Amino acid sequence: MGPNKRIERAKDIKGTIKNVARSLKRYYPALIIIFIFSIISTVFTIVGPKVLGRATTTLFEGVMAKLSGMGSIDFDKLKSIIITILVLYIISALFNYIQGILMANISNRYTEDLRKKINRKIEKLPFKYFDKNSNGEVLSLITNDVDTINMNLNRSLTEVVSSITMVVGILIMMFSINVSMTLAAIVILPISMVISAFIAKRSQKYFKDRQDNLAEVNSRVEEALSLHLIVKTYNGEEKIMSSLKEANDKLYTSNYKSNFFGGLMHPIMNFIGNLGYVVVAVLGGINVVRGSIKVGDIQSFITYTKNFTNPIANLASIFTELQSMIAASERVFEFLDEEEEVKTSNPIVPLSSLGCVEFKNVSFGYEEDKTIIHDFSLKALPGKKIAIVGPTGAGKTTLVKLLMRFYEVNSGSILVDNIDIKDMDKKYLRKEIGMVLQDAWLFSGTIKDNIKYGKLNASDEEIIRASKTAHIHHFIETLPMGYDTVINEEANNISEGEKQLLTIARAILSDPKILILDEATSSVDTRTEELIQKAMDKLMENRTSFIIAHRLSTIKNADLILVLNDGDIVETGNHTDLLKKGGFYSKLYNSQFENI
Fold first, then answer.
1. Could you report the per-residue pLDDT of 254-269, keeping only the tens digit for each?
2. Among 94, 298, 492, 552, who pairs with 284 as Cys (CB 3.0-4.6 Å)?
3. CB proximity list for 317: less than 8 A, separation 6 or greater
4. Does any domain span residue 161?
């Protein structure tokens, strides 16, 4: 997400809620049990004040009788009431504890499922998605957004059920004590609802903004950390800090506003509740003087009145938290709804793998209105070495990406062994193609695991053989842990040349029929380059090879050299013939030596 991306409020709240409900469907039985436990716990809590009021009445009447000399306090009855209250609250606490454990388990399992879905989605997304979205934004989905869903889901669902149960239960108890006082108390309810709706409507935008801005900060931080060497090299600390500050200021603003509106709920609701509490206290005192209700009942009623606003305020607070959850959920489900790579139905598997590759009138552009490959045609016979050269931006690497089906062609077709690659399973196609790129692909793990990535079931002997062919075996043997040496997350505990040698060993191990070398020796010294070139010559035997090179001295032995410029083939031939022509290739080749 770029710095100028417009922040939007939640586009479809109802649709997001439906998505969440649909994704929770497998947990419905467990959620029903949790809701039942929550209701039972709340009911026992509600009954408590009514029973406690009986204790107050018994004590008050006993004291008055003793003062008048007509009786004494009934301690047996008091003891029975107190035991009843203890049992009620113990049962309530037990059911509340059980439902809390169950709900925590469900919320954690649900968010675990979400992370798995996101990870699976990442594997299915086309390359164009990652061209338009930063890694930090995707990382924010897995961490911040899913954590937001987890925290709010864990608390909100059961709190909603218990709060609604509490409101209904308290109303029943209040009506059972005194109807007129209850009617006076519930006058505050519509006022509370209007205020809650107003605040919720105003605050939703800021909760959405907060999640988007949090993703933006993550994106900027991830970029700053991954490119810290370049930042320091070009003294870009001030620029990167300014960029981070801009994103962080936006996050601060949206976070402040969302917290401000969310924080308004409790004090406003408490204020309204206290007003109702005062009204009830006055009416209760009048009714006690008139003798229409007992002292214990007024105590119970005041307790219910005080507690009546709590679940309403709690519901309002939960609603603000649910808005944060909805904003996070919307981002997650939008990601999960992203267009996936096109799957091939009834894929064709060639009877034999020869490595014949043909481009037929291929046109392509990363943007529909910007074509960079124009009507490109080429036939590479099995075992031939095809070199592709040209200035930066000519479309060399794009051709490789099209062959791998990282992108789909706009028009034309690409055939492997006379079968259109659109009709092939992508896994089969990519298994038949080995790649060694300018940027080494290494993962956090051992050297053995990184080489073995080319063939997961490879034996140690096969790994060693591939490493020897790539001239990396001796270096690995000099390491303290040998092949079990761990490459760290940034892969900066080995040199660039050694990284490239490892990726070459991986390609050798995979034993593909088609080989792609994209400036594969650019990161090694001259002596190592000579050794690698010999290994490559051996590796390319009986394989169809596409060699993308900027250093034209490395492709002298290619069977065919294609010279690209602006997506078109401008020259073809071998090295000698192209030099004799004195054309575009000759100028490119000689320009590399004109300073010597």
1. 888 878 877 776 677 7
2. 298
3. 262, 265, 266
4. yes
